[in-house]
Amino acid sequence: MKVCMVGVFDYLNDARVKAYAEALVKKGSQVDVLEVRSSEGIRVAEKNGVRIFSLRVSGNRGSSLAYFFEYGLALIKLFSQLTKKNFQNRYDVIHFHNMPDFLVFSALFARLTGAKIILDIHDAMPEVFISKFPGKKYAILLALVRLEEKISVMFSDAVITANVHFRANMQNRGVNPAKFVVVKNFPDPDLFNSNIRRGTSGAVHEQFTLIFPGTLAARYGLDVAIRALPLLQDRVKSLKLIIIGPQNEYYKSVLLPLVHELNVAGMVEFKPPMPNDQIPAQLAQADLGIYPAMPDSHMTIAIPGKLLEFAAMGLPFISSRLRIVEEMFDDGSLLFFEPGNEKEFADCVVRLYENPAMRAEIADLAEQTYNQRHSGGSELQKYWDLLEELAPGRL
Length: 395
Description:
Strand content: 15-25%
CATH architecture of the largest domain: 3-Layer(aba) Sandwich
Number of strands: 14
Structural class: alpha/beta
CATH topology of the largest domain: Rossmann fold
Oligomer: single chain
Number of domains: 2
Order of helices and strands: EHEEEHEHEHHEHEHEHEHEHEHEHEHHH
Strand order of the largest sheet: 3-4-2-1-5-6-7-8
Largest sheet: 8 strands, mixed
Number of helices: 15
Helix content: 40-55%
């Protein structure tokens, strides 16, 4: 089978896209990736049998119009490149990864030549839009976002959603449910597994390290973690908070000034984004994962892949009490704090710092829950079944 993965992402840092692509290669398929990135350079490369073709856009987001402009530019560039590459390769399936949804229309000519189109909803655009741009003044743009979602689904042959809540919300908006398949996020078990941390269990940690790898944005509540540091500096010896993510406008205008305002620069280390296969080594050296996300229309229902990675690695973690996290993990497998409450965040950290046995217990329970409910074998089978339905006999 010939498959092309397409979207606005950095392939090497996108665990979901990599999981699909590398699994397909292992089954003998030809897999191309056509990525649109905001970082420098246009490259052609290969990684684990996957051919990677990169296009660049500015990445100057901020306002709602800037998002639409960047995504519109991505659509234009992808239309040209995808038409050319499909002419050369005659893909069986073109698998689009949102956001945005309307990138599927870059496969217009490919669809006319027989390629089947999958739209993969990593994040539901209307909920994300409301999260980023709340308020009635954005009502017209929100209506356009909902319209583009609906017509993008109509154009596609199949739609994958990352969880049942995305599917339910889209059905409530009148989107055709017949095309939907739910394929949940799952970490690569070859990268994220507890044996890696067990291999470092004998090492002496000079610091008690909290870690957050992911997007730097207000909805992830990282300011709460930083505000908790003054409450912790006399209660936790040699505390370090490591934040891995893009040094974007939120980092420059909110997080970095807050670190200096609270005089905790010596307790925080910001690291730039890194390929997904380098994250396990960072988690192996940490003592506690954190997820201080704030509730909104998107975060309340979006499955946090980083918590699955923490659990798979056997890393104990704390989280703000969100509906989706309560559905994923029982109370005994992590410690919860109320969203936005830095005092409760600090109390959770101290409780686990002072009780190594509790850290081990909740890590074991989280790993058991992950293995029982969230591992990837059954999710990949749903994907194989979908491909066989779209292109019989080609897989």
